[in-house]
Amino acid sequence: MLSLQNLIAGIPIAPILENDKKFYPGILVVEGTAAASVMTPVTYTVPPKGNFICLAFTGRFTTLETGPADDETCKLSLKLRSGSGRVYIPDFVDLDMILTPGRVKGSVAAGDNGNQLQFPGMPFVTVFRGGDNLTHEVQNDAAIANTWAIAYHGLWVN
Amino acid sequence: MSLQWQIMTAPPGTAQVPEGFPSVLAQLVNTSGPLGTFSYQLDPDYWFFLDVILSKWAVPTSAASVPRVSLFRERGNRSYWDPVDLQLIGTPGIAFTSGVKGGRLNGFAQLGIYFPPGSALQMRITGQVANDPAYVKLAALGRYVFSPEGVDLANAG
């Protein structure tokens, strides 16, 4: 049986505890519904409790088409910028290119099962400042709404 | 040690986050025909460090067909790769036509190639005649930085 000592072996506990008041892990979650055949912006305001060092992101999306049917082909694409002027994704990038596996099986149609999320996801090291806005412009090429979500993994810095 | 652990365990006042910011640059490369070029004019105010190539492609005739890509830097006419199957260097590498289910994750190509401000990142796509891809989408995940350490600015490019 694993002892506590086994579980924490190799983890530098002392410096983590020393830094705990300044750094601690966090996840920011942004989600939205992209209306049919248009671009739908979703703005997320970083909680103003400190700055967030983003390290990576993961995400999910649906692949519904008219019917609604799930043909498993990604219909959503994303642009991303911050309110402080950083343009992270200047062109529409298909969500299955940056959030794969990430596809969520539709509830109606016959499609393969959704894919498991992969951690740690896409490396994406940057600082989101508390109170700043992150604007997600999501284009949906399907004739029916699709949903999506992105989780930003990182550290809060106080 | 991951960057997260480096930050969480750094002596007080010494934790650092890499300069600059990440960016994903994307293009639809090829809608028909055997050849195509991804040519992206980079921001003139920053250096760009290319980390990851993301790709997906349609396979109209054969599940086995895979387009090949080669990577170039316009400045200095530097050629980085021989033509290589996208399956080998791209992720997620989805083939998404009917009957071919995508979603596999090949892992990231850790490229570490730098491009001077305002230069062009180019990738050339080659489809085999019998297995001509209907289209290819490519994206480049990298990092814009102001003044990269360790790069000889005078001689770069």
Task: Give a topology summary.
The complex is a heterodimer of chains A (158) and B (157).
Chain A: H1 4-8, H2 13-19, E1 23-34, E2 39-45, E3 51-62, E4 64-65, E5 69-70, E6 76-82, E7 87-94, H3 95-98, E8 103-104, E9 122-128, E10 133-140, E11 146-157
Parallel strand pairs in A: 3-8
Antiparallel strand pairs in A: 1-11, 2-10, 3-9, 3-11, 4-5, 6-7, 6-10
Chain B: H1 3-9, E1 21-30, E2 35-41, E3 47-57, E4 68-73, E5 78-79, E6 84-85, H2 86-89, E7 91-95, E8 113-115, E9 120-126, E10 136-145
Parallel strand pairs in B: 3-7
Antiparallel strand pairs in B: 1-10, 2-9, 3-8, 3-10, 4-5, 4-6, 4-9
Secondary-structure content class of chain B = mainly beta
Task: Write the H/E string of chain A, N to C.
Answer: HHEEEEEEEHEEEE
Order of helices and strands of chain B: HEEEEEEHEEEE
Unreliable parts of chain A:
none
What is the strand content of chain B?
Answer: 35-45%
Largest interface by Cβ-Cβ < 8 Å: A-B, 41 and 39 residues
Write up what this structure looks like.
The complex is a heterodimer of chains A (158) and B (157). Chain A has 158 residues and is mainly β. Chain A has three helices and eleven strands. In chain A, strand 4 (64-65) and strand 5 (69-70) form a beta hairpin. Chain B is mainly beta and 157 residues long. The two termini of chain B are 32 Å apart. In chain B, the strands form two sheets. In chain B, strands 1, 3, 7, 8 and 10 form a five-stranded mixed sheet that branches. In chain B, strands 2, 4, 5, 6 and 9 form a five-stranded antiparallel sheet that branches.
Quick summary:
The complex is a heterodimer of chains A (158) and B (157). With 158 residues, chain A is mainly beta. Chain A contains three helices and eleven strands.
